[in-house]
Amino acid sequence: MTEVSLVCCKTYNSPEIEHALKSAVDLLGGISLFVKPGQRVLLKPNLLCARDPSRRVTTDPAVVSAVARLVLEAGGRPFIGDSPGIDPFGRVAARTGMTDIARDLGIELLELGDSVPVPTQEGSLFKKLEIARHALEADVVINLPKLKTHTQMLFTLGVKNLFGTIVAQRKAEWHYMTGLDRQVFASLHLEIYRAVKPALTILDGIWTMEGHGPSNGSPRHIGIIAAAVDSVALDTSICHFLGGSLQAFPLYREARARGIGETDISRIRYLGENPKVFSTADFQIPSLDSMGVMPAVLTGIAGRFLISRPLHHESRCTGCGQCMKICPAGAIELSGKKVRFDYDRCIRCYCCQEICPENGIGFKKGLIVKVLNRLRR
Question: Strands 200-210 and 218-228: what pairing?
Fold first, then answer.
């Protein structure tokens, strides 16, 4: 049986958060099981962009601080690292509270900026990956994701958080190469997960994000700290607790098809709180378009008429240009505060919506999503 620990935690205040995190790790055997004296330990939070922690876009600094203290107590040498998609690392680190943590604890704060090629395993769709050197050379990786919805992948949890070990400029290239196929993108996430091999994943699910995540959704209090060795089991569990359809979760489908991690809820043993404490039926989860069911000959038609497309809200736009900078397909033009989308080139990755600091990009629902909403799927 695969084990996932679940602990209630209502706030980020110390000592409640420190007690909850220690309890979650102790249920799995204690921090000394994962960290030995002298080991260099990468703490990999979700630092998507430069947003204040109160927006619930990034892993809360209180979680990172508490985990760092646990590692220090075990004799490890923790450092905080990530590679944000567009904002400068120094700005992201300062805005999200990571700079203060590193200074207060006297630990390193590093941008994951140097990538090295990594061979993929048998059965992979990809010949090789390039992953940040610091992630591969760390003795231990502790994965610290934020519980959020994701308009392209349903959720961003443990496995997807490791996409941050892909150096910033390469992220856009991978988005473009995987295109509309969410299963291929999920497969990429699993390959990164298998290459980085986190020893432990600890999920910040105290304040979460629902709706149009991962950066423009609404904060939602759930009050959970979850931990597991198997990130796939943790991600599958959270989707299930929050009322998400596992069959609509691309990561679950791909992991199950390839036999990576535990995806069978009946084979997951929950330690600590009863999962029913965190179950909810009204968590706002995005409806995903699916290109996987479309015949190849219809892909162009589907891209134009059947699937959702980004839509600009000019009244909210500040003309910052971040959407244009991050677009992997080069499908956005900006003139003042007017954004024009080239829908023929747009690959529907929704990176523009994900990165917009003003929530100035929404969606025009395609026929597929309208049908799914009507069927309540």
Answer: antiparallel
pTM to 2 decimals?
A: 0.89
For residue 335, how many other CB atoms are within 10 A of its CB? 8
Cα(217)–Cα(270) distance, rounded to whole angstroms? 29
Spatial CA neighbour of 333 closest among 347, 313, 315, 319: 319
DSSP of 105-119, one letter per residue?
Answer: HT-EEEE---EEEEE
Per-residue pLDDT for 368 more than 70? no
State mean pLDDT over 97-125: 93
HEC sequence for 287-333: CCCCCCCCCHHHHHHHHHHHCCEEEECHHHCCCCCHHHHHCCCCCEE
List pLDDT tens digits, range 19-50: 999 999 999 999 999 999 999 999 999 999 99
Q: For 129-163, give the DSSP string.
A: EEEEHHHHH-SEEEEE-EEEEETTTEEE-HHHHGG
What Rg, from alpha-carbon coordinates, does the chain have? 20
Interior/surface letters 100-136, b for 16+ CB within 10 angstroms, e for the rest: ebbeebebebbbbeebeebebeeebebeebbbbebbb
Set out the domains of the chain in order of their start, with CATH numbers: 2-277 (3.40.50), 296-374 (3.30.70.20)
Name the pLDDT band for 179 (thresholds 50, 70, 90).
Answer: low
Per-residue pLDDT tens digits for 239-278: 999 999 999 999 999 999 999 999 999 999 999 999 999 9
Q: Which two tokens stand for residue 292?
A: 């996987």
Q: What are 207's strand-pairing partners?
A: 221
Strands 40-45 and 140-144: parallel
- The answer for 123, left when phi > 0, alpha when psi is -120 to 50, beta otherwise, is left
Q: Which residue has the tokens 């443990």?
A: 158
Lowest-pLDDT choice from 84-98, 130-144, 189-203, 344-358: 344-358
Per the listing, tokens 């219809």 go with 298
